[in-house]
Design goal:
Elements (H helix, E strand, L loop, with lengths): L6 E5 L6 H13 L4 E4 L6 H18 L3 E4 L2 H6 L4 E4 L6 H8 L4 E7 L2 H9 L4 E5 L16 H9 L4 E4 L7 H7 L3 E4 L1 H4 L4 H14 L4
Helix pairs in contact: 1-2, 1-9
Length: about 210
């Protein structure tokens, strides 16, 4: 069975410039991103296919899993390492069956432990909680308290991902609360030096102990 890695989980921004996106993701993985999620809410089917194909090649060469957001068919088409689904993105058990045991299945569980329990029962390899902090990507998102990670660690046997408004300043609190991975968009890809920023995030996992 595949195991979702601990560390920085780089989520791509809505970028139409594919060469820029490929270079930015290459920089992120060179800096130590443990996993990448292709997430582009603005892309049409053709652009999404082209970008996901390019990023799959980058991640495969680096030995880093590429997870496709919301689109199981696209994940399978580009032979990505897995797919991440939200509450409205399809049935998790059906996705698990189509992916097979060698691929990763992630689930957004927002601020609900019961939803995470159902996701794990359906075959999710990791669950994501958020928004843990105020998020520039989803400013209206409900907040997930850090105590949720402590409760989830006691009840779930899968890696826990923190998402939403994560910066270098607040990331240690999420890791200390029990997050195995930090899903970051803006604080990573809006940085002038993406590789350097990835290194700084990755270093937090070497210096911060899980509570």
């Amino acid at each position: 069975m595949a195991r979702f890695p601990r560390g920085l989980y780089a989520l791509t921004p809505d970028a139409a410039d594919t060469p820029w996106l490929v270079a930015a993701v290459r920089a992120a993985v060179s800096g130590g991103a443990a996993a990448v999620q292709y997430r582009n809410k603005a892309a049409d089917a053709g652009l999404a296919r082209a970008q996901a194909t390019a990023l799959a090649a980058v991640c495969r060469a680096a030995g880093v899993p590429l997870i496709v957001n919301d689109d199981l068919a696209l994940a399978l088409a580009v032979d990505a390492a897995g797919v991440h689904l939200g509450a409205a993105d399809g049935d998790l058990a059906a996705a698990r069956a189509r992916l097979g045991p060698g691929k990763l299945l992630g689930a957004s569980c927002y601020a609900r432990l019961d939803e995470a329990q159902r996701a794990v029962a359906a075959g999710a390899d990791y669950v994501a909680f958020g928004s843990v902090f105020a998020s520039p990507t989803k400013p209206g998102a409900a907040r997930a308290p850090l105590t949720l990670f402590r409760d989830a660690r006691l009840q779930l046997g899968v890696p826990l991902v923190a998402i939403g408004g994560i910066t270098l300043d607040n990331a240690p609190a999420a890791i200390a609360a029990g997050a195995d991975a930090l899903a970051v968009i803006t604080a990573l890809f809006a940085a002038g030096d993406v590789a350097g920023q990835a290194r700084r995030f990755a270093a937090l996992f070497a210096t911060t102990e899980t509570a």
